[in-house]
Each structure stands twice: as C-alpha cells, then as structure tokens.
Design a protein that fits this description.
Number of helices: 10
Strand content: 15-25%
Oligomer: single chain
Shape: elongated
Structural class: alpha/beta
Number of strands: 18
Amino acid sequence: MKKILLFISAFILLFAFFTTGIYAKFDPTSVANNKFGIHITNEKDLVEAARLVNSSGGDWGYVTFVITEAERDHNRWQQIFDQMRKLHLIPVVRIATKANGDNWEIPKQEEIGNWIAFLNSLNWVTQNRYVIIGNEPNHAKEWGGEIDPAAYATYLAAFANALHQASADFYVLPAGLDASATATGKTMDEATFIKRMIVTEANLFDNLDGWVSHSYPNPDFAGKVTDTGRGSVWTFDWELNYLKSLEIYKDLPVFITETGWSNQKVNQEEIGSFYDYAFKNVWNDKRVIAVTPFILNYPNEPFSEFSWKKGDGSLYPYFEVYKDIPKVSGEPQQIQSGQILGALAQPVAFSESDFVGLIVAKNTGQSIWSAGSVNIVGDNGELLFRNTLFFDVEPPKTGLIIFRATPVQKTGIFIKSIYLADSSGKRITNSFPIEALIVKANKMQIDSFFAKISSYLRNTLSTVRF
C-alpha cells in the first residue's frame, strides 16, 4: 500500500511539474532587441513614447512606469497593457507604496500577496514580465524617512521569491540605487548599501533576474558623456564590477531605467548628441537590455530639468535626435495560444475543387493574431489551404476566420480536423473537426449548378422590397 501511495504521490508531483510553469522567462539577449526606451508618468504619453522609441527602424522599445498601491486597478492597467500591445511597447513596471509627506511609506510584507494577485491578473504584453521592486532605497525619503539596507534586502528577497512562485514568467529586478549618493543622514553610499544587503540576505541574487542601474552623468546631471566609472553613463559597469568583488558572479542583464542630462545645466542643443554617443559607444554593451531615460513629460518641478516635453507641449530638440538614432526591430517572445470554439465547411464540395469554410476562435495568448502570423493547418496534411480572410484578433477576443481549401480525398464523406499554428508552424490551438460530402462532377455540371443557384437568388431578391 505504501508503494502505491508513493507512486501516486510521485505521479502527482510530475504532473504538477509538467503542467505548471509551462512557460518560463526567456533570455532577452537571445532575440533581436530594441534597447531604446523612455520613462513616463502617465499612460497618455504612450503614443508619443512609441513614436520616440519605435523609430528609425526600431520596433518593440521599452517603457518604464510606476504603479502605486492605490493604483492597483485591473481594468485600468489591462487597458494600458492592451494599448502597449498595439503600439509594440514592452512594459517595465516599478512598484511603489504611497507618498506620505516628503517620504514614500515603507512597504509592508503583508502587501506582497495583494501585489501578486494584481500583477498575476493582468495579461502582460510579453512573456517576460519585468517588475522592479522599489526605488533608490539608499535615500531615506524612499523608505519612510529611514535608511535600512537589511529591511530592504529582506523585503526584496521575499517579494522576488513570491513572484517566481506565482509565475516563472516574472522577471524580477531590484531597485535602482543612487550611485552618486554619499554617507549623510539622508543618504547612504551605494557600495555600503549593497554590502549590507548581502550580509542580511546572502543568497539574495539567486532570486533576481537582472540588475537596474540609474546611470546618470554626474555631477549635477551635467557630466561628460565620455566620463567613465561610477557617477557616469558607465555606472552600470562599475556596479557589476563591484558585485563581482563581493563574489556575485551571476550574469545580470542590465536595465538602465533612469539616466539623462539636465536641460537647465547643459546646452539643450547638445543633449541629443550625448545620447547618440552613449548608445553607440557605451550602452551598446551586450549586457544592457534597455535604456529608458527619465522622463518624457514632466515640465513642472521637481523634474522639469529632465523633461523631454516643455510646458507648452513642444518638445526639446533632443527628442528628435533620439528618435533619429538607428534602432533594431525587436522580436520579444510572446505567448501564443487560443481555442477554436467552432468550425464548419460548406456541406457539399466538388472533387478537385476548392471549398469554403470558417473558424470561430478565441485568442487566449499575448500576441495579436493577424494574417501571416497565424495559419490554418489540417491534421495529416490532407487539406491544401489556398487563401484566408483573416481579421486581426486581439487577446482575449474571439474572431472569425474564413478560408478556402482543397481536399485530397476524391469522393465520399470528408471528416478532417484543423487547428491554428503560429508562423513557425507550432500548434497554438486545439483541433476541431470539419466535414463535408465530396461529389464528383465535371465543369459543365458545376457551372450549371451555380447558374441555377444564381438564378434562384436573383429571382428571390427581385421580389423582396427594401
């Protein structure tokens, strides 16, 4: 009896293993990647963001934005994600608590479950779900007025573990730190902060999938683009080297979610050339996945000096320069899946002639189905599909697909199954049977049959008054 129970338990574990976590995060460096991005504060800026990052040959750029505890509205964010799907924008979500005076409240462990439920309820744009936990905790104002690397490390470890348990697709990133901060009552040196994090959570990086860097050109956000090391556009490189000095040898893809020059301390006409140089000589580093400068549209204090848009709605000159930098057409991995709800073919088909059929299918994946991206396939290759009338189907909507096909079978009852496949031929839906009676007839008989049908329809319509 014990052996039977052991066998059943092993079977259940194997079943759970193979039926959960079907998807897993993919390596963003394994596909064509458009690392150009931008940081926004409002979804109203998405169209302009797409115009900026998906330009000059680019597609599927990145957008970083914040979601606070008070903004966990499923309907709102699903609409935003759906818009980003249409615009080919990859979301990088930074989660936050809520502002209390001059400080951001310290996050509570018990809120992690609420975050998981909310984030997991969304149909994300890509398979990788990029989530950043917090922001610059080596600033007291970002952690309830305190500086507590041990508490942040504990919170980060717990949150990262919970995200990975919820879905293998979550790509967990730590908060970006202020590399130029010094040891004051309100800030802590980044190196000290990181070292104390690791002392508290020795295995912290086992649950992190990448690294977030705020590679600002300092001092005063006015440093030279050719400067190197800490406090420059090369800050990410200094950070990775520092982690190695602490025996953190894990490969950590880098997301530079904040960078940029002050338009009040640097000639606005020169900032564009700085970005051009940085992308071609610094951020072309293969470890860098995305660069989302801060910030597209914030013409008021305290971030007006970083804004790419002016108060009157016009754009600073570096917008156009950035837009014109040559880019890559990204190919991020998206989950493709669906369900055929119904399918049928014309009841009677003529041998060696095309017949017409239709499919009603629901898109349950992440990509938008369109002609060319999704194909109809017949089991055993016994159908030759000629052409398809295909209307775009966004997830999670249901759409109609009309097709023409020729059966290999000559006569008799025809019963075959069809399914949908992606552009590589991989099945993405269930199979569904269609059937028809195939009869043999010569061309004269076929023409006569359709002539009678046409005549009948004309006579019928002539008696109908509209």
